[in-house]
Task: structure prediction
Amino acid sequence: MKRILIVDDAAFIRMMIKDALQGEFEIVGEAKTGEEAVTLYQSLRPDAVTMDIALAGEMTGIDALSGIRALDRKAVVIMVSSMGEEAYIKRSIDLGAAEFIVKPFSKDSLRETLKVALGAG
Amino acid sequence: MDLESAEKEAFVNEVSERLQQFGDLLLDYERHPENADLIHQLFRIAHTIKGNAGFVSLTPMVRIAHAAENLFAALRSGERTLTPEMIGALLESGDELRAILEAFTADESLDRFNPEPLIQKIDALLTGAAPAGGAQAGVDDNAPRVRLQILLRSNCPLPGMRAYMLHKKLCELGAMERVSPPQEAFDHMAAPFELEFVLRTHASESDLRRAARSHEVQAVELEWVAGEAPVATFDPAPLMPAHAAQEGRVAVASPLVSPRDAADPELLFSVEESDTRLTDAAARSPDSSAARQLEALRVPIRRVDDILNLVGELISANSNYMALAAEFKARYGSKGLYSNFRENSEELSRISAELQEKVMKVRMIPVGTIFSRFRRLVRDFNSAYPEKEALLELSGEETEVDKRQIENLYDPLLHLVRNALDHGIESKAARVAAGKPEAGRVRLHSFQSGNDIFIEIEDDGRGLDPEKLRAHAIRQGVATAEELAGMGGEDLYQLIFAPGFSTAERVTDISGRGVGMDVVRRNVEAVGGRIDIFSETGRGTKFRITIPLSMAIVTALKTLIEGRLYAIPISFILETLRVDNANVLNIDGVETVRLRESHIPILRVAREIGLEGVPLMQAAVQRSRFRNLVRKPVVIVQYADLRVGLLVDELLGYEDLVIKSLSRNYEDVDGLSGAAILGRGEICLVLDVNRLIGASLGKADATAFRAAGSRPAGRSNGAAGHALAPSPAAAAPESRSAVLTAPAPVASPAVARAIEQGALRSPDELELIKRVLAGGRQNAVRALRHVTANEQLGVRFLASRLQSARKFRDTLLERFRADPSVACYTEYNLMAVGGQALVLTRENALRLARLMFEDPALPTLDAKAISAVREMTNLLAASFTNAMSAAAGVRVLPTTPAFLDPAELLFERGPFQAADDARLLLVEAEFADDSDQSLASFYIAPGPGGFAGLADAGSARRSERPG
Result:
């Protein structure tokens, strides 16, 4: 099972994502901040990361994406974004995000997006 | 071709049907190559076509079908694996076969058909002469050029971003030469989202396809550009007839519209999905009628649906204007600006209505396309049963019906025609003996009248025999002799729709085992229609299917039932009355009202849909000397042969509603067929009249119900007669009032009253509150959709009101005593601290969490569940503070929600502490769930400054904010 790290500052969204992925993916960790995300990525080396694009705190999701990509050029990071965040999405694509998904999303589309990004779908 | 015309027709029908399946199955197979059943079916079809074509000596057809059959065989055995080229070649075969069939049908010469290039192409694919080239590093001028056409899903969020991503990924594989639409225009794309990239690359087709893959990509078409393809890649152009090369791609059910077609302003739209006439045959004979079909563009029906939905929203939005106009008039009188406003709004109405009509037209196809399929059936029947003879008469074939509806009606029609042949039409001998012509007649007739389309299936056979029906019903346990005693002919006919009811004396190939008249009715009802039976013993039977012109937009009467909005589609409504208590008579336990000369059973809708209300005949009201003033509206509807009155609380006028189907949770609720969102964002549920009445007929009192309905007024009739109370003398004429036609103005009386009673400081404050409420509600609905894609979870807002804190506290405490509750509290800081809270019972908190997580198994109100309640509070609070920000021009932010268990803790927080006459704004939010009951209330306590503070805050800006 592919190992996933979930990064979001909202407990509800983290749980939604966890629920969606349960059974098909292994959730290896959850992070609430960008700093945590980079640290956890380094120690856990997950197969993919779902990254809230607009993390609260010092480090945004974009910063965390660059941080992770700096550690691992092949890191698969899926940005979790919203309408109105187009500029951030563009930036994250430029920075090598593997995929992005727009809220609201169905559980299916999240799973599919992850599978496509992991080349397993 | 010296074929008998009947034989020829049979051949054409058969092959035409197979070809239709062929195309559909191929597309399925492309998506599910692992499905062994699909390949098997395709193989069979190719085989059958080959066989049939051989029989009529259509050599080109035989050869193509044979080549396709070989390829299918290789695919089936696993000798070959499916490639997109194969699908392309096979679809092309389908087109070529159809072109040949059409030429054959029109008695045209077949000399112009040369199947060889196509056959060679298929053979090449069969022998594996076309393996894909591998990716190579580096791009140079000699790199092959590839064109990718990518169709994004119509509901793809942020298509511009998706395009940006696809562009980037493809750029990584080669040198981009052309991008359409240009990159700068990505953000402004309108549906359908089609992208075209041309690049030079050494990447393999699979690499390219992988780069283009995404959940949001619906279709990818990849084409190596002629002459410069990798050695092993197949270039179709030189091997195909010139026109086929151009047209083939358009014709093969590609979801992509050819740019050439799209640019032609003369194009007609055709949504006929089965239209495969855009073939080279058409192009080669420009004068034939087939050539004119080139003017038509095949459009996936989905796209038309998208447009129709938008038109629906436009109409919704416009009814908003109408309501605004009414409010405008109420406030500023009916002069000057108002009449201007109204004229403009009416103009917009007219245009939207016309647009709606035009778009709906696009989905319409003549009913004849379905009717003609029955010719074959009748012919087969005649040859299989020489003792019978039936003639099929078709009329009204030009009547246009919504394509989706007619497709759903095919099965019920087939069933009815089979029944007519099998059970209706007598043997020749019996007919002659009865003095009828030897050949029976089955007539299919269709016509449109008003907002309805009628389809009749009539035979001149033996008709339904009430005695047989009666005996059979008893034997099958569908009804008891007692129940049947009072039933007249038309009531009896309804019995045949009972599950399992059949009077078939024998089982035949044509009609099978008499199952399914109940299925017939269900199918008809599924498209919003109904079915009536007319029959005369010895003379024949007629079934009449009535369907609304389109299901998408329906004119309906809005009613209020127990404070909720329900709509009744106009197609069912005969008239409306008002009745007072004295008019309601109880006959055998069935309540009836008198309408002119007869009694009509009434249904209390509130009770039927589980909203038990205050009974009309409440004792207190009955004793009151005002009892005759308590008049309730009754909507008389037609149910099969029965008139039934639906008792509601209020009539609110007619409106065009855009009906959306109900979410999963509602599906099993009998009596509801859909929901509509009104101009003001209120949700109006649409009553499913058939099921509503059907359900009550299914109950024990059905016979009495029917008996009551069919009894003439004032006349004693059998055993039940004595129960019939004398009709009040003056009741009938006075109790009727005119049908309401104008939509009632939507107002929010609670807020309006508050200002009258001095509960509000100024009209400005009222304006502000209205703005905050309107903005907040809209934000909330949007935000809710934003957080989860969960269709089951909807929010609607009930009336908001201002209330004193003291009253509020007392009411809530009372409630908490009865139902242990929890609350979630958040506050914002403006001129003073304002608080907001979501209050709900523990049980509902868990339900809400289950809805939000779409997890009905969520066990308890644990941390996970609480996170959902918090999120919902956050969402609502932010929605309203956002609206406050907008109204005041300063930023208002809510704090992180605190979960309070028990809810009584709320009275220790912020402005909710006040137990005096401070005013609180109460916003009742309801979350949709299967029980259709309110799950939670949301309250805003603006604090001592009230909302008037918002305006002050706006002018004072941030500097004056405390803290």
The mean pLDDT of chain B is 71. Chain B touches chain A at residues 157-158, 160-161, 164-165, 168, 187, 210, 213-215, 785-790, 852-855, 864, 867-868, 870-871 (CB under 8 Å).
